[in-house]
From TrEMBL:
InterPro entries recorded: ATPase_NBD, ROK, ROK_cs, WH-like_DNA-bd_sf, WH_DNA-bd_sf
PROSITE patterns noted in UniProt: ROK
Family: Belongs to the ROK (NagC/XylR) family.
Pfam families on file: ROK
Protein name per its UniProtKB record: ROK family protein
């Protein structure tokens, strides 16, 4: 049986295993010449040469420049052909849509965004997303799409790609997000919580493939992406990290999820807007009072008021940070991360917010858990969820499903689907 036919039937022979490994060694930069591949894999020179030729024939590898000489003839480097496919990332938030196009190495080639209310429902939202995707593809239409990633601002069952009772997304519960994209692009599609994409984006930015990191997004909602040794921890059903609905002691605030006392109902952006408007109506002095008289306040206006020294805004932001810090401290004790990244709109309040979070985490967490802990703000790069989406797609394509579609030269929904 030939290597191609063996791969098509999914058998894992030694030949197939070494071929896949060589492609991934070159792709990740761990080994980029034939001699380096031999050292890493322990394969003989003739076997390495044969496998590399096969990988070139399949179209995954190409010849690069000459490398440094160690005394003899300089070896020619190999490169992964990242230009042969594209990854589409659609990062949806409560009030926006962001779409990007990357090469197979995760490099963002094109991106665009627009304001959008996620509560308008799945059909209208996906229609708007497709229009943005068409816009970015117009500039790069000749290269096939290899994968699509969709990030949603709510709980997602990762296996099915379906949202599960998302509080701010009416009409989305159980909606089949995956199929419209599979049918449109004939490519595998992964759907995940948006904060997981941000955590993966942070991993890519830090170039730390084994990061123990928690990304906390605190904006209109609250959620956390958990990285353990570089891998997203989703839990049994994808609900891991949904800290926005952890109960806050003694709170009776009504949450959008229908429960009472959730962290989100006390410390999120919409909770702060609610509390600021009520305080101003009750007579509190604030520079935001003029806005409240005319229209509804926004979280951005509260964070801007913090920067200008508004006492009410500072009090509310510090309260949010204290309560959020208490919940984050529980994650620190359980997961022992080396880094906590605070992102989302609340992070734009800067050190006023971050200092309070740090204080509560260090007060309430175990000394060993905080000994080497760094707590920092995100870089607030709008491309971060796009890079994170590309990381997710590359991980799924090349680490998880590669043997099932390698011989086809590109992935398809059928090949990537988990075998029955």
């Amino acid at each position: 049986m030939t290597t191609e036919s063996t791969l098509r039937f999914g058998a894992q022979t030694d030949e197939v295993t070494s071929l896949l490994r060589i492609v991934n060694l070159v792709r990740t930069g761990e080994a980029t010449t034939r001699p380096e591949i031999g050292k890493v894999t322990g394969l003989g020179r003739g076997v390495v040469s044969q496998r590399v030729d096969q990988a070139i024939q399949f179209g995954f590898l190409g010849e690069g420049e000459f490398g440094a000489s160690s005394g003899g003839r300089a070896p020619r480097t190999l490169r992964f052909r990242a230009e042969q496919g594209r990854i589409i990332i659609c990062a949806l938030g409560a009030a926006h849509i962001r779409v990007g196009l990357t090469a197979l190495d995760g490099d963002v080639l094109e991106h665009t965004h627009r304001a959008w209310d996620i509560s308008r429902g799945p059909e209208k939202t996906i229609e708007a997303v497709m229009a943005l995707v068409d816009d970015v593809l117009k500039k790069d239409s000749n290269v096939p799409v290899w994968a699509v990633v969709v990030g949603l601002p709510g709980p997602v069952d990762f296996a099915s790609g379906q949202p599960v009772s998302p509080p701010i997304m009416p009409g989305w519960n159980g909606f089949d997000v995956r199929t419209p994209f599979e049918e449109r692009f004939n490519a595998p599609v992964w759907v995940d919580n948006d904060v997981n994409l941000l955590a993966l984006g942070e991993r890519a930015r830090r170039r730390d493939s084994l990061a123990d990191l928690i990304y906390c997004k605190i904006g209109s909602g609250i959620g956390a992406g958990l990285l353990s040794e570089g891998r997203i921890h989703r839990g049994a059903n994808g609900a891991a990290g949904d800290i926005g609905h952890v109960r806050v002691l003694d709170s009776t605030a009504q949450c959008r999820c229908g429960k009472v006392g959730c962290l989100e109902a006390v410390a999120s952006g919409w909770a702060l807007v609610r509390d600021a408007e009520q305080a101003i109506k009750d007579g509190a002095s604030s520079s935001m009072a003029a806005v409240v008289k005319k229209r509804a306040l926004t979280l951005e206006e509260i964070t801007l008021a913090v920067r200008s020294g508004d006492p009410l805004a500072i009090t509310l932001i510090q309260k949010s940070a204290r309560v959020a810090g208490e919940t984050i401290s529980a994650l620190v004790n359980m997961f022992n991360p080396s880094v906590i990244v605070i992102g989302g709109a609340m992070g734009s309040a800067g050190e006023v917010f971050l200092a309070e979070v740090r204080q509560r985490v260090y007060e309430l967490s175990l000394p060993l858990a905080t000994r080497d802990l760094t707590i920092t703000l995100s870089v607030a790069d709008e491309r971060e969820p796009l890079r994170g989406g590309a990381e997710l797609a590359r991980e799924q394509l090349f680490d998880v499903t590669f043997p099932r579609w390698f011989a086809d030269g590109r992935p398809s929904p059928e090949r990537v689907a988990v075998p029955a």
